[in-house]
Specification:
Elements (H helix, E strand, L loop, with lengths): L20 H16 L17 E5 L4 H13 L5 E5 L7 H15 L4 E6 L13 H9 L4 E5 L7 H5 L2 E2 L3 H8 L3 H36 L3 H44 L1 H6 L20
Parallel strand pairs: 1-2, 1-3, 3-4, 4-5
Helix pairs in contact: 2-6, 3-4
Amino acid sequence: YEQRGEFQLTVENLRRSGLGALYEAFEKLKGRLGQEGLFDEARKKALPLFPRQIGIVTSPAAAALRDVLATLRRRMPGIPVVLYPVPVQGEGAGARIAAALDIAAQRRECDVLILCRGGGSIEDLWAFNEEIVARAVAASAIPVICGIGHETDFTIADFVADRRAPTPTAAAEMASPDRVDLAQRLRGLKNRLSRQLAQTLEQRMQQLDYLTRRLIHPGERLAMRQAHLAQLRRRFVQAAAQQLAAHQAALQRLESHLRHLHPQAVFERGFSMVQNAGGAIVRDSRTL
């Protein structure tokens, strides 16, 4: 009251000071699930490189759905998409989200799931902080990418999911290969293959030229053999002639020795061989 210098406060609601009851519940559940190991990297599943079908768990009216579909069409329009419609906020939204995740896991018609919604306050995003949703994400046999709100928004589902994306658009990028990038990689591989093939062909051609030079025509080989045989024949004739000449010389030497040692040669030098009337050789003069 200005005139009296007084003021008055009317209290309609009272709560404990600090971050509030919702944040306290968030931290309590986060600590409990973390102790159970639901946030461990070892239990998180790898994302498929080339999913055959992608599932989206969100509200059909959510702007996040339009962003995700636009991103998937831009990156890889040939991948089919299955929508599991759920409310993303309000009473019972957490149970509906958990049920949709269970249905998707049972059907196994998708290779990866995107759980997404746009930004909002902690109250708007609270469905993704419920324990039932966290356990459904953890129990899913299909890899789950969580893209809730904006980059600064964190929910319990983000910690449990196999991958946390800062936005729904980023979640779509994680879930799908980029056809432009794939086309560039294919062109790069094609160029590498062409270069390798050209190098291999060049090497094989050089080897073929080398082997061609080493390859001798049968006629040429026969001519070389005939020349070799002629050379061997000449060498054989020469060796035979040399051996024959050597044997003839040796024979002549032996013949000369025989002529020199022959008894007739002795007689020719004035000696005689005396025989008696019976024709026996007289070897001693006393027998005469």
